[in-house]
Amino acid sequence: MAGSEPQANGDPRIGPRGKRIFQRSLLAMVAVIPALSALYGLHRHGGEGAGVGLVSAIFVTAMLMFPAIKLMNWLSAPAKPPLWPHERLYWSATALVAAATFVGVAVLIGAFDPIEEHGLDGVIDGFIAGFLSAALFAFVAARLHAWLMWLMEPHLTPAEASIRQRAAWTTPLGAAILLTGWAFFARLTHEVDLLLPVAAVLIGAALGHIVASRPLAAEGERLYNARRTSPAARS
Fold this sequence. Notes:
- Helix 2 (about 15-75) packs across helix 4, helix 3 (about 85-110) runs antiparallel to helix 4 and helix 5 runs antiparallel to helix 6 (about 195-230).
- With about 240 residues, the chain is mainly α.
- The chain has 7 helices and no strands.
């Protein structure tokens, strides 16, 4: 089958020409998105709006560059058989949910939110909010997939296998603890910021991952100190 040849032959999913097009598209995003955002801010709120739009767009573009570069490297690397048999289903579901998120947020913000402007400005606001929401969901889904593939990686040393066994429960536990903390905070303050739960999940997961990796770091430090104090090292 033609669709299975890249998997069997180990060929990259995109060739050198496709990689160049991808790179040029990323460079265009870096230039175009902040410029359009500054122009839209200028239209809405004058010079102050242009400055806020420019700074916000630079931050968002920088945030999107990391997963975009990772995607480019994955597409241009030799294809490998998937570690997870349901990988295609996972990405299809991710794309569908991201598209539904984009449409839902764009419609709600652009048409029904009384705070936002209606007409063309409302459509643009809805598009921006929908795009950012969908991109954020796709980023979280991609990091979850990378973490699952990291857990399933074969041919590990005993130390690596032990760390990944710990990470399998400390990572989601850290995310759950910080998400619960956000829920209590939101209940006490009666303020719901939709970015805070996402940040809580990502930061909590990162902290859980660090906790799982601490024994390996401690062992590496112990071996390093032992080498420094050995007679051979002193000589």
